[in-house]
């Protein structure tokens, strides 16, 4: 039986859908509000109500489970990235040795080997290490920046602009959430792997934000301009949108590391497992949202 966490999130929902299509194994999902799952899905799977960060809830949800898709919600109002990833996952890691779970797939971040603190990235890697130490077979899906995060700027894109605290001509990797979900579902469907490893997921190409703006202009059929904002301006925006001081600081640490090319540490790494180009993603997922 497979346990899926965050089944209504952008990645978790895609993992759940793929597993229901690609495997006949029974599936359990854990979520705070079961009514957020479509009724048709609820009728086909076992649902546990509650937070997967709660010891009692996760303990009950793990009964009879042998495979887990693990993804903390990454709450921006949490005290810090450590609280959001490591502390949130602690009850799960402590419960694992007493369960029948043999294989876990988690969503993490590129950056292992980076010598400076990188906020959410560093704490995601610490979470990976904590889970791996339990002895389960573990695959950490080490993601670069997610293309889908651009949807947070839908209204700005309708006005022909978008922003980031990143130089316009810095080439960086970007991955689509659909590819992350496909890799996760594939690993959970066929558990012919052991040990603990990172799987880098960084899309088929490195792109600058200037190149992304040009692609968006083509895809949306209207001029789109990228503007670099200061890191302090970015932090102020996070605070205005409810992020805690600790999470704001950790977001800044992460993006500072990315600007210092942390995500390009891995060279000559196979990219066939994340084939979706930015243009393909923008045509399929962003354009319908922006032009709605």
Fill in the keyword field for this structure.
292 residues; alpha/beta; Rossmann fold; 12 strands
List the helices and strands and how they pair.
Layout: E1 2-5, H1 10-22, E2 27-31, H2 39-42, E3 46-49, H3 55-61, E4 67-70, H4 81-95, E5 103-109, H5 120-132, E6 137-143, E7 145-146, H6 154-158, E8 161-164, E9 172-175, H7 177-189, E10 196-201, E11 206-207, H8 209-220, E12 225-228, H9 231-240, H10 245-259, H11 278-290
Parallel strand pairs: 1-2, 1-4, 2-3, 4-5, 5-6, 6-10, 7-9, 8-12
Antiparallel strand pairs: 9-11
Helix pairs in contact: 1-7, 4-5, 8-11, 9-10
Specify the structural class: alpha/beta
Going by CATH, the architecture of the domain at 2-146 and 175-201 would be 3-Layer(aba) Sandwich
Strand proportion, as a percent range, falls in: 15-25%
Strand order of the largest sheet: 3-2-1-4-5-6-10
- Number of DSSP helices? 11
List the helices and strands in order.
EHEHEHEHEHEEHEEHEEHEHHH
**General shape:** globular
* Rounded Rg: 19 Å
**Assigned CATH superfamily of the domain at 2-146 and 175-201:** NAD(P)-binding Rossmann-like Domain
CA-to-CA gap between the ends? Answer: 39 Å
For the secondary structure, the number of strands is 12
Average pLDDT score:
96
Q: Which CATH class of the domain at 2-146 and 175-201 is shown?
A: Alpha Beta
Reported by name, the CATH topology of the domain at 2-146 and 175-201 is Rossmann fold
Q: Give helix % range.
A: 40-55%
Uncertain segments are none
Q: How would you sum up the major sheet?
A: 7 strands, parallel
